[in-house]
Write a structure and sequence with these properties.
about 0% strand, single chain
Length: about 190
Amino acid sequence: MLRFILDRTAVPYFSNLVWFISDQSTSLNEQIIKVGSSGKMGKLPDLVAEHVDNLYYLNDIFSLKVNKNSGQKTNCNASFKKQVFAINEVLTAQVLKKLVIPLYVHSLIPAHSLSLLPGSEATASEPRLLPSVALYLLAQLMLIFTHKPIINVLSEVFFFFFCFFFFFEHRIFAADLDKRKRERVF
């Protein structure tokens, strides 16, 4: 029964919720571009507030405080604990695979460098945010979320991607600089 509920209800619901938040992020990005060109705030404060509210909603789901190896005695039965843990796993996967990595993290990486990612499925058709918007939204996730598994993954993502790209961007820059120097000498 639990598997049926998770397969039939939780995955589509969380997928739609994460898609909605992704769409909000893109709208927020577009509004910031408009504000930059017109100077009028428009509906930007409302979009930010709604986005933050949705992140708090996700955090509330994560914060049910039931984990797989919980030895604490609670008023809920064992099947409920398993269900909540499974829901947190499903939601974590949805947030990471459909929001954080493809939209926020890939927006921080220069488009020409996306192909350097091992196993990257990034395409030119993926929506991209301004890097400042992506960084702000990632910071909001780190600020709002208290669910350790997702915070740990976000921290790993930050360290992995930034170390990886600082290393490769430096090597690409150094190779271009060497090439220019050789062209000048001859």
